[in-house]
Amino acid sequence: MKKYAKPQAYAAPSKDHRHAGTFEVLVPLPDRVKPHRLAQQFPTLQAAEGWMHSDEGKDAIAEVFAAHKPEPARPAKQAKRG
């Protein structure tokens, strides 16, 4: 078993009330609190999952991972002593 596995994209119901009843594909990225939402709505969960496993979906998810550049860690500020 791997200690660290690359996060996998998943389909979930849309939280946007304008698209109520639809599903969207979310891609969790390292160093990011919220997952990245791909800009496409699907009428059913099966349609969203089918798109994720299609060539178009795999390419879109790979582009999101390639475009994500983690921010370098900031050095801790030292307290001034007076």
Total count of strands: 3
Q: How does the overall form come out from the CA principal axes?
A: elongated
The whole-number mean of residue pLDDT values reads: 84
The biggest beta sheet is recorded as: 3 strands, antiparallel
What class do helices, strands and sheet pairing give? Answer: alpha+beta
> What is the distance, rounded to the nearest whole angstrom, between the alpha carbons of the first and last residues?
52 Å
C-alpha Rg (nearest Å): 18 Å
Please trace the helix and strand order, writing H or E for each element.
EEEHH
**Could you estimate the helical fraction of the residues in percent?**
25-40%
Strand content: 5-15%
Oligomeric category = single chain
Strand order, main sheet: write it out.
1-2-3
Discrete helix count: 2
Low-pLDDT segments: none
Task: Please tell me about this protein's structure.
The protein has 82 residues and is an alpha+beta fold. 26% of the residues lie in helices and 13% in strands. It has 2 helices and 3 strands, in the order E-E-E-H-H. It has a 3-stranded antiparallel sheet with strand order 1-2-3, with helices on one face.
Keywords:
82 residues; alpha+beta; three-stranded antiparallel sheet; 2 helices; 26% helix; 13% strand; elongated
What is the fold's blueprint, element by element?
Blueprint: E1 10-13, E2 23-27, E3 36-37, H1 45-52, H2 55-67
Antiparallel strand pairs: 1-2, 2-3
